[in-house]
Amino acid sequence: MPDRHASAPSSASFGANDWLVEEMYDQYRRDPSSVSEGWREFFTDYRADNGAAAAEAPPQAAPTAAAQAAPAPEATAPSKLATLAATQPEAMPLRGAAARVAKNMEASLGVPTATSVRVVPARLLEVNRRIMNNHLARTRGGKVSLTHFIGYAVVQALRAVPVMNSAFVPGDPPSVVHHDGVGLGLAVDVAKKDGSRTLLVPCIKGADGLDFRGFWQAYEDLIRKVRTNKLGADDFAGITITLTNPGTIGTVQSVPRLMPGQGAIIAVGALDYPAEYQAADPRRLAELGVSKVMSVASTYDHRIIQGAESGLFLQRVHRLLLGDDDFYDAVFKSLGVPYEPAAWRPDVNPLDREQAHLTKQLRVQSLINMYRVRGHLIADLDPLAAREPRMHPELDPASYELTIWDLEREFLTGGLASKDVMLLGDILSVLRDAYCRTVGVEYMHIQEPDQKRWIQEHVEGTNPQLSADEQRHILGRLNAAEAFERFLHTRYVGQKRFGLEGSESAIPLLDAVLDEAATAGLVEVVMGMAHRGRLNVLANIVGKSYRELFREFEGDLDPSTVQGSGDVKYHKGASGKFVGLSGNEIPVTLASNPSHLEAVDPVVEGMTRAKQDLLDQHEAFPVLSLLVHGDAAFAGQGVVAETLNLSALRGYRTGGTVHLVINNQVGFTTDPASARSSVYATDVAKMVQAPVFHVNGDDPEACVRVARLAFAFRQAFGKDVVIDLVCYRRLGHNEGDEPSYTQPQMYERIEKHRSVRKLYTESLINRGDLTR
Question: What are the distances in angstroms from CA 216 to CA 142, 245, 572?
Fold first, then answer.
């Protein structure tokens, strides 16, 4: 009769994790309820290597009477050896997990292994990791470690050298298994409560089918399970190759043991300068172009893998970590990093160092200036990320013969961020934070040096972090904006309202401008806008009652008008009082706009000037004009240019208008490339030397910072200022249109895109700024 346990799982299939399985099994035998349901199911028909089943082993038989009666051997005189042995510490038997580890190590001696080692320069890896982690810190939170990069490179290298993903099978004759997929084991060092340490090796299953984002998430999920002691039996199965990183505790190079059933184990050493340079001055190391390095070792089963194959595998890992085959491009794309990664280039450091440094100094000054002029061209402005990130040649350090080796070298800055000397890496960090994140600034067309200097002082090297109260207020404004549109869309299906979906950040942005105006002591704000988002602004900024708005949707006509005549609800104006986060109050008037789009612009300017003349406060300009535009209309309607042309004339000026362009990147059904010749919809404003702040509508915190900056510029110089809110239109031109007929690719992306409220909530939670 066949053994019913013949197909039962055995601890031998868990390799280095056998000790844990045995430990959990002993715990299960003592008290099945003490282990998780997953482990209980696994141990139902489990058979250990020693043949033990779920029942306790039978007790040993008692000694026989003959054995009890047998005389004891005569005692011998103690020898010197016995005396010496008596002075040694008592040997403690290994039991449980420790015994299983010892057994595994003895089993590993039966695998004939060899080891290949390669030293990899880590400069490029460090630079790109810093770029990625800076982006994650500003957006979703989380960090990418060096091991994430190396592990992913190992998996990708197996495509080129698949023999490394094989296993030897003993028998007569012996055979080899070439695995179809990659199960990457992660050797994780775990400290126990008693101070001892042990090793767990969970498995990333199907690692070869994951992009970097999926690999990173799977890796972090396993580490989270290790830390919370929630690993199950399934988490240890399926390992085909293992990665261990003793470098985290400073080990320079390691030759780990290879367990039966795997073809190779990859060990990563510490990231550091070579030993002979570790006491050198960092500035001298930067001058010489010395990189930190790390060793990568491949210990492999020599029965099925040859030394040349292991060497080629390590060479492939090396080349990937230097950026071959667009390795970092794919990594950046998978995590949505909207920039090109740094590239590997040799250092340019000739013998005539003084002349070379002077030449580089001039190039660094040119680079600083070009970031101020062109930085907005590589800013992360489009929430839909419709275009692949491209480095503009005038912003690429390589165009100035600057490489990753120059990042740790010092250069004069000309006062950038109030510092005279900075490392090139820090210079680029300040410039990119100022001009290339989710805000891009156009201001170098302005002829007045004091205005350009003012903007530089307010964006370069500043700390943009908002307080927790400000973040909660922004989230509340987004909640109000989205809830309003969703209610109308659900309650009044098919009715035109020209909703704000996709550009809800306009509400916290307008809220910030009005709050700044109230805090500054202005007397009133006069607003004008087209129909897009007007109802939302009336409800959440001007303060028009929901009752009155909903009555208009219900068809309840105003009896005071002749036969109920009057304009449609999304053309009407109103007056109210605005109270912002500061608690300050300011009257606000939204002018009616019964005509089309930008016709209201000169009307608002006239209303503002009239109110200022009545107040007669001369150059104080105590009434703020605030105009909200659409992108296509701002670029295409002549009344915009005509109104701008009057802005600085003595008889018409109002002390500066704040212009908000709700740029949903489509005009009715036309995309920008078919609608205008200029790069931006806001380029017409440059004719009056107005600064333009472009901002990504999916970053509401940046929208609020830009709103405050724009108002402060208006107060400082009495000039017009433009905010270009780059967003999208979730629905059609009106709620009855189907936009995917004319813009199928855009609306495919919009369909998959989460709302700004959801994205901001997730960002706050992931960054730790908001608890669940």
Answer: 10, 16, 52
